[in-house]
Specification:
alpha+beta; seven-stranded mixed beta sheet; globular
Length: 148
């Protein structure tokens, strides 16, 4: 299998996978917008296999009261097409994000991880708070972070 290519993409390119994987309850793909998608600090990443977009993630400069950081970023709307799970597309995207954020002097990357994704993030060195919480219409989550 060819190597994956990770690169920055436009927010609108993330909508199809956000809809398919994360928010199928939203009626229209074009409504899979995050209110801060177009902020200046927003970084949208796509992992491609050839021309096919197989994994996405969005990064935003944002602090959290749950972790102390000088320059924190938040990972949101991370999704991998179900047919590409377990083939390292998501891992390649996150490793690319780590490198990109380190170059920008970011010290912490944090996220609200779905319970089903905790093992994935843990395998990439994320730490986790033990308290589970519910995100309405989505399900159980954990707060996770990685020092960069």
């Amino acid at each position: 299998m060819k190597n994956f290519e990770v690169r920055q993409i436009a927010a609108v390119q993330t909508y199809p996978l956000r809809h398919k994987v994360l928010w199928p309850h939203i009626l229209k793909e074009e409504d899979c917008i995050i209110d801060i998608d177009n902020r200046e600090d927003a970084i949208h990443l796509g992992c491609f296999q050839g021309e096919e977009l197989v994994s996405i993630g969005s990064l935003f400069q944002m602090s959290s009261s749950k972790v102390v950081a000088k320059t924190p970023y938040r990972l949101r709307a991370m999704a991998t097409d179900p047919s590409w799970r377990g083939k390292n597309a998501g891992k390649e995207l996150i490793l690319f994000a780590f490198d990109l954020l380190r170059k920008r002097k970011v010290d912490i990357l944090w996220c609200d991880a779905r319970k089903i994704a905790v093992g994935f993030y843990s395998s990439l060195g994320f730490e986790m708070l033990p308290e589970e919480y519910e995100v309405p219409r989505i399900g159980p989550h954990y707060f996770m972070w990685k020092k960069l």
